[in-house]
Amino acid sequence: MRRLMALLLWMALAPVVPASADPPDLHDYWDGRCKSCHGDAGDFARSTLQVEQGRLIGRHHRDRLDEFLQQHYLADDWVAPVTAMLVAQVTTAPVFKAKCSGCHGSAADFARKSLLLRDGVPVGKAGNRPVADYLRAHGGLAPDEIAPMVETLKRVLGEVGRGAG
């Protein structure tokens, strides 16, 4: 019984790191480790972080945000990918949230459930149609919003571990 309790305690306290066989899902990691205090990753990034000279900085941890993240519940293997995800969210307009989330939920959930990456092109799982083609007649996006939306969805596919293809 003592061994079982020790094993369970170790499992609960061990840092979660990306498995080498499966690509990491950064959004699941954020939701499990960070969301209870910081909320949605995109909302958090856009309201509290900024990018200056290519570096992610925070309101309170301007010069050493990467060091802070290593000490703030992020396993070492997750600091760089989570930082890259936050940089992308700070520098990307929340068009998916504004125009798509009402029907499709979060971009991460939508990417997991409905999209694949084929030869570097996001396509729908149903019908294998390129997302760019679909968006020309769906979602009310302006023509100049289609390419950035496709790039956002391609990035999110990578963030949820579905970027290979």
How far is it from the N-terminal to the C-terminal residue, by CA?
A: 46 Å
Strand arrangement within the widest β-sheet reads 1-2
Tell me the series of helices and strands, N- to C-terminal.
Answer: HHHHEEHHHHHEEHH
Q: Which of globular, elongated, flat, extended, rod-shaped describes the shape? A: globular
Strand content: 5-15%
Helicity range: 55-70%
Domains, number: 2
The number of distinct β-strands equals 4
Give the radius of gyration.
18 Å
**Contiguous runs where pLDDT drops below 50 for at least 5 residues:** 1-20
Main beta sheet, described? 2 strands, antiparallel
Mean pLDDT: 83
Counting helices, strands and paired strands, the structural category is mainly alpha
- Helix count, DSSP H or I runs of 4 or more residues: 11
Outline the structure in words:
With 165 residues, the protein is mostly helical. Helices cover 56% and strands 10% of the residues. It has 11 helices and 4 strands, in the order ααααββαααααββαα. The chain has helices at residues 2-13, 26-33, 35-38, 41-48, 65-71, 76-90, 95-99, 101-104, 107-114, 131-135, 143-159, and strands at 49-52, 55-58, 115-118, 121-124. The protein has a two-stranded antiparallel ribbon with strand order 1-2. The protein has a two-stranded antiparallel sheet with strand order 3-4. Residues 1-21 form the signal peptide.
